Amino acid sequence: MSVSTSQLPGFRTMTLEQRLRCLAETLGREPGDFATALANAGLEEATANAMVENAIGVLGLPFGVALNFQVNGRDVLVPMATEEPSVIAAASHAAKRTRAGGGFEASVDRSIMAAQIEVHDVSEPEEALGRLREAQAELLGRANEVAKGLVERGGGATELEFRALGDGFLVVHVLVDCCDAMGANLLNGIAEALGPRVAELAGGTLGLRILSNYCDRRCVRVRARVPFEALGCSRAAGDVAAHGVASASRFAELDVYRAVTHNKGVMNGVDAVALATGNDTRAIEAAAHAYAARSGVYKPLATWRLAGGELVGELEMPLSVGVVGGALRAHRGARLALELIGTRSAGELAMVMGAAGLATNLAALRALSTEGIQRGHMSLHHRASTGRITP
Ligand SMILES: CC(C)(COP(=O)([O-])OP(=O)([O-])OC[C@H]1O[C@@H](n2cnc3c(N)ncnc32)[C@H](O)[C@@H]1OP(=O)([O-])[O-])[C@@H](O)C(=O)NCCC(=O)NCCSC(=O)C[C@@](C)(O)CC(=O)[O-]
Ligand SMILES: NC(=O)C1=CN([C@@H]2O[C@H](COP(=O)(O)OP(=O)(O)OC[C@H]3O[C@@H](n4cnc5c(N)ncnc54)[C@H](OP(=O)(O)O)[C@@H]3O)[C@@H](O)[C@H]2O)C=CC1
């Protein structure tokens, strides 16, 4: 379901109950529906006990909504779960400013992940690779028998890759379009099903059979163009802010110590949406930082440039996220988060997550390069430390 607007005037000053009612109205739901969905932090103890081992309860985390987002022309409410004050305000703030340039434009690759099958003790790697290449059709067919459901949805195994790693190691990648799933369990199933035949063809010892979290074929790209005047209370202030953000971005490109913190600011948004929607933040983080270092030097995931009176931001990062399976099977709160975004597509979720990452990055750089981070961030920290939840 789509919302007609992600700008909800006065939302920040409402009580928690008023916010839930306002969201229900905005989404055309019964007042009270959302409160029910979020009861017990959106997760019953009995469900938690079935989800993990040795459970002793459910650990709460603040769950909020970032406003003002427009992604590919569509207004989107962005659910965020985070323990850190000022992240949701920052995202809403930057999203408000980007609206003047048309919001966020995003695109996403197909949901391609690689299942790795490793074989070692291979004495003749070149011959082994030849035999594996000849058996491609057979191996792909077997993979697609395991992933029947995916094939019916228009996905499934699409391609195989073979590499000799040296020292008798060889690895086969089964590339799979996992549609709207994150894909880990799916790919592990495929890797385990194909493993023995791959080892037989390679003439070696079967090793690991597991997906790779380095999903560099499953990237999201997000762009925002912000007119200078939208960045400050006057054209002059906007100019200063735009130049400050572009310079901060350049600093991150030149210095790894800065790039890591810069990317932490990106992940403020990405992880908060991932947590809210029940996605695997460890998988997302591992891939993001490997991608940031893909040239051999750790670089920013998002950059900002000046172009003809506009500040132009671009983010590119791998994102393996799902709107089915995983924690979503059991977690009411996470399902509510997806309902707020109004999507049933993993690609669309990835684009919203990327937009959230670019937004939190912009807000942080704008604050850092103008007044400094302490005023905005610490005033909200102070509010949290005094326990004042509602204004
Ligand atoms: C905190 C702000 C937004 C204040 O900024 P401000 O200019 O004082 O805000 P404002 O009162 O003028 O409000 C502007 C908009 O911000 C939002 N907003 C503003 N306040 C609230 C609030 N209380 N509750 C909800 N929304 C809020 C809201 O959308 C509001 O629009 P309005 O509702 O008025 O139409 C700004 O200073 C900011 O963006 N700071 C950056 C904060 C940040 O990045 N925090 C993350 C923690 S620091 C970190 O982890 C990362 C870092 C910094 O190390 C990364 C890096 O180094 O790159
Ligand atoms: N290294 C890692 O990152 C690892 C992560 N994990 C965990 O694995 C979980 C994610 O695995 P994943 O395989 O995504 O989840 P699940 O196995 O929970 O769910 C995926 C299944 O959902 C079904 N499905 C229904 N609708 C769709 C659709 N539209 N698109 C795609 N699939 C659909 C498919 O089954 P069917 O076709 O039969 O209907 C598919 O196999 C996460 O909890 C993650 O933390 C686990 C191991 C390792």
UniProtKB/TrEMBL annotation:
Signal peptide: none annotated. Its EC number is 1.1.1.88. It holds the Pfam family HMG-CoA_red. One of its GO terms (biological process) is coenzyme A metabolic process. Belongs to the HMG-CoA reductase family. NCBIfam families: HMG_CoA_R_NAD. This is 3-hydroxy-3-methylglutaryl coenzyme A reductase. It comes from Chondromyces crocatus.
